[in-house]
From TrEMBL:
<feature type="domain" description="Kazal-like">
    <location>
        <begin position="1"/>
        <end position="55"/>
    </location>
</feature>
<dbReference type="InterPro" id="IPR002350">
    <property type="entry name" value="Kazal_dom"/>
</dbReference>
<protein>
    <recommendedName>
        <fullName>Kazal-like domain-containing protein</fullName>
    </recommendedName>
</protein>
<dbReference type="Pfam" id="PF07648">
    <property type="entry name" value="Kazal_2"/>
</dbReference>
<dbReference type="InterPro" id="IPR036058">
    <property type="entry name" value="Kazal_dom_sf"/>
</dbReference>
Length: 60
């Protein structure tokens, strides 16, 4: 069984990314860290796109 990063190093140039789980991560490193943990559980997560995840709410 592999090991996943516990923390990502500080990066002042990091940018938000959206995962295929619909969660906005503070950096690509944070997404990869979470993806590693979830992959071990059989729940793969990948990069969906750069930037914050768009909310798919309903207008009232």
């Amino acid at each position: 069984m592999g090991h996943c990063l516990l923390r990502c190093p500080y990066n002042p140039h990091a940018y938000y990314v959206c995962g295929t789980d619909g969660v906005t991560y503070n950096s690509e490193c944070e997404l990869k860290r979470k993806a590693c943990v979830e992959a071990m559980k059989g729940n793969p997560i990948a990069l969906a796109y750069s930037g914050r995840c768009r909310q798919h709410g309903h207008c009232e």
